[in-house]
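ok trying again, last paste got cut off:
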Amino acid sequence: MALCESAKVSFKNGIGYDSRGAMQNNRQITVMTKENWEIICTELKCEIPWTTRRANILIEGLDLKNTTGQQLRIGNFCLEITGKMYPCNRMDEQFNGLTNALTPDWRGGVTCKLITEGEIKLGDLVSLEPKQENSTD
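nice, full thing came through this time. structure:
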């Protein structure tokens, strides 16, 4: 994992030049919150870099629990939240107990697919928008 202050967000690569970021499934980009990461570190009694989680984006100020289908706007691009990001057992290879600490209350973050391309920059505004309903009129 590499920290970047800005990166292109594209259908082809996800964030930057992520080799796993191509639009293949509903897990193109992963997002977690700073608030949940702080809870995890407190629970584990250790300050661990958030990149240990291997999420693509860290945001703050929003609760992502039960947000499947909603849209997450970050700066000038948009993501659709496709579900809860479940931690794999590799998390315990990074830090013992991390898998269990990530599991409750969607602490591990969310999986997303890109709706519109753009660029992400440190400090971008982030908002959560309701699920887009198809009109039957």
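cool. The radius of gyration is 15 Å. The mean pLDDT is 90.
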